[in-house]
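Archive entry. Fields below.
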Amino acid sequence: MSYLEYTVKFVPTGSRKLLYLNWPLALLLTATAGIGFLMLYSIAGGSYTPWAEPQIKRFAIGFAIMLTIAMVPIWFWRSIAGVAYATSLILLIAVEFFGFVGMGAQRWIDLGFMRLQPSELMKVTLILMLAAYYDWLNPTLKSRLFWVIIPLLLIAFPVALVLRQPDLGTSILLLAAGGGLMFLAGVHWAYFAAVVASGFGLITCVFKSRGTSWQLLEDYQYRRIDTFINPASDPLGAGYHITQSKIALGSGGWTGRGFMQGTQSRLNFLPEKHTDFIFTTLAEEFGFIGAFSLLTLYTLIVLFCVVSALANKDRFSSLLTLGIALNFFLFFAVNMSMVMGLAPVVGVPLPLVSYGGSAMLVLMLAFGLIQSAHVHRPR
Amino acid sequence: MKQPRTDTEANYRLITRRAALLGGLQLTFIGMLGARMQYLQVDQADQYRMLAEENRINIRIIPPARGEVFDRNGKPLARNVPSYRIVMVREDAGNIDDVIQRLAELIVLNPEEVGRARSEMKRSAPFLPVTIADEVTWEDLSRVSVNAPALPGILPEVGLSRVYPQGSDFAHVLGYVGPVSDYDLKRIEDPDQLLRIPRFQIGKVGVEAKVETTLRGKGGAKRVEVNAKGRIMRELDRREGVPGSDLQLTVDATLQTYVQARIAKDSASAIIMNIQSGDLVAIASAPTFDPNLFVRGISIKDYDALTENKYRPLASKSVQGAYPPGSTFKMITAMAALEGGFISPNDQFFCSGHLEVAERKFHCWKRAGHGSIDLQNSLEQSCDVYYYNLALKVGIEKITAMANRFGLGERHDIPMSAVAKGLTPTKLWKNRTHGSDWVIGDTVNASIGQGYLLASPLQLCVMVARLASGNLVIPRLIKNIDGIEQPIPETTRLGMNENNLQTIRRAMFKVVNDRRGTAYGSRIIGDAMRMAGKTGTSQVRNITAAERARGVSRNEDLPWERRDHALFVNFAPYDNPKYAVAVVVEHGGGGSTAAAPIARDITLQALYGGEPPVEVYPSKDRNRIIQQQRELRSVRPIANVSREEQA
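PREDICTED_STRUCTURE:
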């Protein structure tokens, strides 16, 4: 037990906290959200309704939430990690029973004043929980099998529940974020090597078993994989979205068709053009320059988070910030890969840009935690 | 709350290292995304730009015309008629409320449909037409067309909709079509693209459902050019689909209409079958319903009225109903005994009014008993004790095997919904389902068609056809698909001793034509057309000893649900069998009074191909028959085909 308990030499108090906020990060977030407003305005055919206006309101509320959370000392948030995790888990179980069916999957819970998506909340509370766990755990024990199984269970419960909804995209994100946090916390690399190796083994088995008597997946699941690998094989069926999205993207060219001049994304060739496929509109209307700018903004956000995390010196704060940054990265990386035909179509929105309430609020809540860690770090 | 603490230097370095590693991976991935972006948007831009232009060309599916259905003489049973609807295009309408208001002043709008249209318009693209009034009349359509300038965004459209000109008479045979539901889509593996067209109509029950793929045809496609807003500018080319195949049924519509009218007053079913070909010439079930109501979307009130009716108008009793066959089963028991060599036709048993088996009394319907009686007389007078004695000799397995050879307990393959399998019990079956052993009393009950035995009118009809011909008659409902005659299965013999069959036929002849026969009142006058048959009265309740002591309670005194089923099966003419008939009147009382007269009337109608001369009826019935026929002629099928009448 070689913790160096230390006293904080200087912590900003009261309204002075605002000065110590990570303002560049807040600015980057606002800029990214601004791109979202622009796109939603364009998709609605040059109208604030039905998407842009609510989205702006939500961002304003989210920004306020971020500031509020940032004002509260990070050690308070650490102390409620367990409660927050348990609450999210209970809410996830609750959607199983009282959930409302939205978009074909059971994801919502109606709180009266708003509809909450517990799986979104879980993305933050899981990271919070794992960061608190590794903060609490003696670092010399972290690679012991028993102490590895505990975080694995913490990850497995919500993943299983989300998978049941069914929401494959979110469960993959949860799994990846949780695993990533364990990696950051310093769990021995051999565990990860084993997981990667067995993953490859499983994939090989799945493909080798095709057509044999011990076939591991159903025929239609193989067909889906085929369609993903070669979307042209089924242009009017499952490959349709990928093909259409690539056409919209590619036709943007260097500079794009111009604001509100996009044709493909507006022509109803694509579903969910204001949520999961919003990137196609940006790419079509602003071309490579616009798309690459968004990618740069995202990269900068992650970068600022990582820099802030490493300057924190406090294990909990570092892990929390890194974990949230990783989660944010996974969000946009998976969405962009999907839209550009690098990954199968799973329902993952583009963070801060896609239309959606829960996702936006929870994301801002997460950035509030990062800001709190930033403000309250030892100076 | 603890104050934050710094980490050990080593652990901090580890986290930094891992963060750097993960950050590196992330950066690599981001680089890959950037590269992909460049590939798609810069390197391949020209190609995708071209594809995007091509994307202006959309493919729309053209639904095929559904096959029509005709009776054996070419009379239409299910047709497609043009139907008119009024659609609205949101972006052309401007103020939706205003336009709907003005439209409502011209024609009657269904508020439910308008509400649905409004919510649909909110969800779909502004240039897509949304149906605001379906099934409008030609007059309403022309009124709207004349006022077109005042109604921006309102367009008339023509489509095809299904109409059943024979209405309720063919409701059970044909079934009806309706829009594809989510439930339908879930049931079908790899559904046709056609089914995804909103409101596409598919068969829901009956022939419409069972022959769905044949009737549906194949969808065509047209390529259309759309402008940058997605509006169709012009049609480029089209590939016509394959229209659905027309069907011709074996049913004779005139006869079917007569039979439906004849049984309309009861909860009953009747089947007539051609013995040579197996053609089902009439399949009636009453009460019935108007299938046209379902096509247009039946109101909840009408639907509830149908489902809550205790006479079950939606059930196709002639093929779905399973009843204890009662005394109509005695031919099977007798055949089993004769073919097994257990008795000869002249062997006699003594009927004292009951038989004691395993310390239980099994009663004959005639309490005084029939005395010594032989096979033909036992069938003619429907003596129960005679068959109890046969049961004891033959045993259940041989009786069941014989029943199966006559088509009982077999799901006949005809394209109607929920065709009943019935039940021919065996010892093994009882052990499996009831968990108790077969007892001799079960065999005794089975010998007179009671107990576990269940048969549908269709099965009874096939049974009679096989008895009359000695052939393995197989029922058939589809005569012809798209002008191609469907083959009649080659006749194979049942392989029964012809003398035994002749004995049974002779006995059935006496049932109707001998003064002591149970159906003597329903005989036909004139040698050429005489029929042979068998009555059946099957109990749906147990008669208690107390009831027996009071004297068996009369059916008329019982509530409808507890009365006996009345059955009658017959074939005609006796000398040269052409038609087999089965009639079941649910809780109708006695087979001889409730079922036999119906069977005779419809047999005559089939034999004469229309109304028979009154001379074929016994002279004392003639006045009543003339009156009855006049009433039936005035009954017309309930067919709600107002649109056609207006046209």
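CURATOR_NOTE: Chain A touches chain B through 65 residues (CB under 8 Å).
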